[in-house]
TrEMBL record:
GO function terms (MF aspect): AMP kinase activity; ATP binding
One Pfam entry name: ADK
GO terms, biological process: AMP salvage
Pathway terms, separated by semicolons: Purine metabolism; AMP biosynthesis via salvage pathway; AMP from ADP: step 1/1
InterPro entries assigned to the protein according to its UniProt record, in alphabetical order: Adenyl_kin_sub, Adenylat/UMP-CMP_kin, Adenylat_kinase_CS, P-loop_NTPase
Protein's UniProt name: Adenylate kinase
Gene3D superfamilies in alphabetical order: P-loop containing nucleotide triphosphate hydrolases (3.40.50.300)
Species for this entry: Stenotrophomonas koreensis
Similarity comment: Belongs to the adenylate kinase family.
Function: Catalyzes the reversible transfer of the terminal phosphate group between ATP and AMP. Plays an important role in cellular energy homeostasis and in adenine nucleotide metabolism.
Length: 187
């Protein structure tokens, strides 16, 4: 299955994507994780992305498309993939659509995790303590939520207009939300 998970920072996308990977036996592709790996490796790309990420802004569409194109050219995506963190704006959604069309592998499902803003701030604060991510400070979190509503929320409409969107309530236990996602996917 070729799947996109959409949702604001703190909505549980990453956690649910990791579970889906085990359930569906397809790779979990998190652009945040790919970028953090570049930063940790100190690559040219990582150096470019580091400050942007720490501020909670979006890394350039060009860098992201290159990363996604190269990741989707690997053999382990033959049976599908779960995209987490991409696309994050309408330009990326268009680029992804074109890329997938060019390899004859269009998306089969888009799941949007719905969580109210107040709860997101609370969840990210909890995660900041546990993981110590550089971009989980209050200023960057505010910025990421702002970027989500300005740039990423329109992606919901993009997929809605293609009749491809399933909305899932992201409030509940991890098991409850996971069961809802599977149900939305018809599994
Ligand atoms: P979260 O969902 O908690 O914001 P992610 O791990 O998905 O965290 O992303 C962390 C950061 O990586 C983002 O704030 C952004 O700077 C960068 N990033 C990840 N995916 C993209 C993308 N598709 N386009 C641009 N920047 C991205």
């Amino acid at each position: 299955m070729r799947l996109v998970l959409l949702g604001p920072p703190g909505s549980g996308k990453g956690t649910q994507a990791a579970r889906l990977k085990d359930e569906l036996q397809i790779p979990h592709i998190s652009t945040g994780d790919l970028l953090r790996a570049e930063v940790a490796a100190g690559s040219e790309l990582g150096l470019q992305a580091k400050e942007v990420m720490a501020r909670g802004e979006l890394v350039s569409d060009e860098i992201l498309l290159g990363m996604i194109r190269s990741r989707l050219s690997r053999e382990d995506v033959a049976n599908g993939f779960i995209l987490d963190g991409y696309p994050r704006n309408v330009a990326q959604a268009n680029a992804l659509e074109a890329l997938l069309a060019s390899i004859g592998q269009p998306l089969q499902a888009v799941v949007q995790l719905d969580v109210a803003n107040e709860l997101l701030v609370e969840r990210i604060a909890g995660r900041a303590k546990a993981e110590g991510r550089e971009d989980d400070n209050p200023e960057s979190v505010r910025k990421r939520l702002q970027v989500y509503s300005d740039s990423t929320a329109p992606v919901i409409g993009f997929y809605e207009s293609r009749g491809a969107l399933a909305k899932v309530d992201g409030v509940g236990t991890l098991d409850e939300v996971f069961a809802r996602i599977l149900a939305a996917l018809g599994k």
